[in-house]
Write a structure and sequence with these properties.
The chain is mainly alpha-helical. A hairpin with a 5-residue loop joins strand 1 and strand 2. The protein has one domain. It is 48% helix and 7% strand.
Length: 233
């Protein structure tokens, strides 16, 4: 409950801890921006009904503020014959419009709203979870499906979370072998975890870098993060 003692940090309620999880925007260092003398041309993205259908099969999770969960959305998108076809076409138009145009935040504000949950971290603490609208998740997954190869090519082995097949497994085996070779010579591993990393990063730097490195998705990302999502608790 909002007024419950969060236990960690001491003296804070659950609601106060949730508010701490959303700090003021960070001021980025100049080195955070990818250097670019000439911006790459932005290519138009084509989203079809078939893209939406393929994405719909992979939808999962509980409902956002509207109350419509993945089971309901899959049923609407896939199981109602011509009505589903019309809805898929509408979702394709919606996603394509957000991918190829700069929109005002008011046009997507309701779509980006989240249902905020406070989960108890064991043994102590609060873990905030934002449950988004399934319509928004469908648009996000569709854009990722259409443009993911761009990310894989750009990131290559520098960022294994970009979707490179067997990238994680290869890294694990390489580090294990390296550790075994060096562990008797004074070498070791330093494990680090950033505090509240996603909410603390600079949106301006992230969006600029996406404009340079992930061009086809850059307008969609700008429309998604140009404002702050409404969190309904």
């Amino acid at each position: 409950m909002p007024t419950e003692d969060a236990i960690k940090p001491t003296g804070k309620t659950v609601l106060e801890v949730l508010q701490l999880k959303h700090p003021e925007q960070a001021e980025p260092h100049i080195d955070a921006f990818v250097e670019c003398e000439e911006l790459p041309a932005i290519l138009e993205v084509t989203i079809t009904e078939e893209h939406i259908r393929k994405t719909a099969h992979k939808l999962s999770g509980s409902a956002g503020p509207s109350g419509a969960d993945s089971t309901l959305w899959q049923s609407m998108l896939l199981k109602d014959g011509n009505h589903s076809k019309v809805l898929c076409e509408a979702m394709a138009m919606l996603t394509e419009r957000q991918a190829n145009n700069i929109l005002e935040w008011e046009e997507v504000r309701a779509q980006k709203a989240k249902r905020e949950l406070a989960l108890r971290k064991l043994p102590v603490g609060i873990r905030p979870i934002g449950v988004g609208e399934l319509m928004d998740r469908c648009a996000d997954k569709t854009m990722l499906y259409v443009t993911e190869d761009d990310v894989k090519i750009t990131c290559n082995s520098d960022q294994l979370c970009s979707g490179i097949k067997s990238g994680m497994e290869g890294a694990i085996h390489a580090i294990r072998e390296l550790f075994q070779d060096k562990c008797d010579d004074g070498f070791g591993l330093l494990l680090m975890d950033a505090a509240n990393a996603f909410n603390s990063i600079s949106r301006s730097a992230a969006l600029w870098n996406a404009r340079v490195l992930w061009t086809r998705c850059s307008r969609f990302l700008f429309n998604s993060y140009r404002g702050y999502a409404l969190l309904i608790y």
